[in-house]
Amino acid sequence: MNERFIELDRVEKVFDVRKKTGFLRRERREVRAVDAISFTVSRGEMVGYIGPNGAGKSTTIKMLTGILTPSGGRVRVAGIDPSRERTRLARRIGVVFGQRTTLWWDLPLVDSYRLMHRMYRIPDARYRENLDRCVELLELGDLLDVPVRQLSLGQRMRGDIAAALLHDPEVLYLDEPTIGLDVISKAKVRAFLKDLNTERGTTVLLTTHDLQDIEQLCRRVMVIDHGRLMYDGPLTGLHEVGEGERTLVVDLDRELPPIEAAPARVVRVEGPRQWLAFPASESAAPLVARIAAEYPLVDLSVREPDIEAVIAQMYAQQAERVGEAGQSVS
Amino acid sequence: MGTGRLYAAVATGGFRRYATYRVATAAGVFTNTVFGFILAYTYIALWQEKPHLGGYDQAQALTYVWVGQAMFAVMVLGSAGFEEDLIERIRTGDIAVDLYRPADLQLWWLAADLGRALFQLLGRGVAPMLCGALFFDLALPSGALPWLACLVAVALGVLVSFAIRYIVALWAFWLLDGAGAMQITWLTGVFFSGMLLPLNVFPGALGDLARLLPWSALLQAPADVLLGEADVWGTFAFQAGWAVVLLAAGRLLQSAATRKVVVQGG
Amino acid sequence: MADVDERPATTGTEDDPFGAYGPYRRLRDGLRAYRMIAAMWIRSTMAYRASFVMTAFGNFAATALDFVAILLMFSQVDELGGFTLPEIALLYGTSAMAFGLADLMIGSMDRLGRRVRDGTLDTLLVRPAPVLAQVAADKFALRRLGRVTQGALVLGYALATLDIDWTPLKVLTLPMMVVSGGVIFAAVFVGGAAFQFVAQDASEVQNAFTYGGATLLQYPPALFAKDLLRGVTFVLPLAFVNWLPGLYVLGRPYPLDVPHWLAFAPPLVAAACCLLAGAAWRAGLRSYRSTGS
């Protein structure tokens, strides 16, 4: 049971971003979308993966599914290197891209499933069994013959989840599976995922902005920010995450190589502007003094971690919901 | 905001929207230039076979080729312009929102299309023309006046081009799928604008008919004005006449469409 | 039902999903995925039957206009560059058929840049089928038969009116050039799509070589400058689609000084183009997977 099913060892993804700075001038800079992330997920775990937009969540998922090749480090899913054996891995994983349906827009829902049946070479009996099960649990019975374009967002999401599961994947990646759904659809999706995980032992990794998703589904949460893993543990410890790092934004009077001022480290450089992350437990004052002494400083500001804002917002939404329901928070 | 400034802003937006796609513009210039070369060589063969065909000499025929490539994007003779967006908005029903805006629907889209046309004249018109002038002997006028007159003819041509496409887009209120209608307009446009062959080379009655139709205002008219082959004021009057008629027809269609939307409750 | 014709999925050695992924196996998998996806698109278009009929006719008419322009030219002259109308019709028909076949099979590959931009390419990368096959089958549209039909009609007219001294070799050359030409154009489509991994907005560049190339080949090579001919003979070998073999059938010399066995080289050239296009595609996909969108 404790088999290491997903393994990431100091995985990095560095992008070269070109940005227009003038009519023809372009500036090149490196963005570390994923910065030395390591974690393992055992078979049968259900893990929530959260972080602000642009934190590196989807880049991680893309490396886990073999879409993107890591710039460094080692990735293994079910013992397979995703980027080298993408097609082979594809038979063993299921992916649901939140906002992008993979269903056929103009055809009845069931036609998309038939395509999956053949493309994944699912044995007939297995296909029928899985389809029946998804139809029953996701309540798709009346929708099978409806063209996908006529489905509501919630119905389509349920349809997409079923499509990703017909070939019995060992792991399911979901990107914002409940975003934009009404309360009833959300509940259906969550109940289904829980059942999938407990009954069938499917490993599930989901990204979300909805704390309820995590509360109801995941015993383990990973938080990523600035491409770094900030927290990995039970939901109860999540509030400590904000204590992690703060960011110092420094404007120099010209473009310079990354500032060296341990324990702070440069996380981003854009022309003369640099972003430095430093432990939230430390005071910013000595750091600022050191930089001002050694570098041509023009302006600076301290930013609280984005991740804290995200988590705070998640809890705020939660409180609102509870408040609406007229219950006291104990 | 004054109405004039509103439409100016819309036009600027139309210009900017196309100006963002620099790579696409360069790719378009490249393609127009390649087609220009192919057409130029076939025209050379044609005019060698029959000098003064259609009243042009070879240099004029070659000039026509490159004016055609320059007008290709400006007059929307190839791909689609605003009408794709408009049809999409009609199909999804978003058009109801537009109809309640305190701006005139036709003027709004016209302003945006003029912005687009201006960008494509600069971005996609100038380069193929220069390239053509570099590699072939063209009959380009030396004075400024024919060029100015040509610009006026281009502007009037854009009006006609817009008016036609606006009418076609509004058909989407009554047709479920606008793709077929758009394709047929596109075909007619390519053929009767003279994009494939100058209209004065069309034989007999077909040629006479083609020169009377509105599409001749798009390419044949500006080209003939530049080449000094047309009565300038007569050409302007012809273009302006079609522009007025077609824009008015577009307005009629627009009010019918508005009634349809209002009756259906948006 | 769609899946009745499909042999039941087995877990035996032949269908072992973890079997060796050799090139032969990948080709078979690719063709299989292509067939399945193309069939889905055909059924999708049939959801709008009236629109299909209209656009199929439109496709036919649009491509026929090119020939109408040539007819209009010949209403004014008897020869163009020393070629008669039926001779040009032979070049036109073979060019239109070869290009039409490529356009029918993989004509939507010019949408690749859009797929990269909107991120939908990723949904194809997580499927157990070669991405090239999935992209090639994208938006498969039977309406594109319009161009092939139109080319076939013009070719039929050419063959009926031309007075050719037929030999078995010449008879064989005709289907050989249409098929090889189609493959050469298909390779151009793939190469153009590979370029879009790098320049996502540059889909129009490939139009210059696909549509532009097809237009070029409709006319006799003698019309064009020698440098242009060298370019399309030795660099981007479009001349092998129909010029070299077509002029052999017509018994006309090729304006460049090349050995005349080159008229029979199109299958080899097509194979070489496929190898190059395949390499370009792999390089493009690799660059996409290392840089993201």
In short:
The complex is a heterotrimer of chains A (330), B (266) and C (293). Chain A has 330 residues and is an alpha/beta fold.
List keywords for this structure.
heterotrimer; A: 330 residues; alpha/beta; Rossmann fold; Alpha-Beta Plaits; 6-stranded mixed sheet; 4-stranded antiparallel sheet; 9 helices; 13 strands; elongated; disordered C terminus; B: 266 residues; mainly alpha; 11 helices; globular
Helix fraction of chain B, binned, reads: over 70%
CATH architectural group of the largest domain in chain A: 3-Layer(aba) Sandwich
Total beta-strand segments of chain B: 0
Number of helices of chain A: 9
H/E topology pattern of chain A: EEEHEHEHHHEHEHEEEEEHEH
How are the strands of the biggest sheet of chain A laid out side by side?
5-6-7-3-8-9
Oligomeric state, counting identical vs distinct chains: heterotrimer
Percentage of residues assigned to helices of chain A: 25-40%
Helix and strand composition category of chain B: mainly alpha
Q: Number of folding domains of chain A?
A: 2
Q: What percentage of amino acids of chain B are in beta strands?
A: under 5%
Q: What is CATH's topology name of the largest domain in chain A?
A: Rossmann fold
Hey, which two chains have the biggest interface? B-C, 36 and 39 residues
Mean pLDDT of chain A: 84
Kindly provide the radius of gyration of chain B, computed on alpha-carbon positions and rounded to a whole number of angstroms: 19 Å
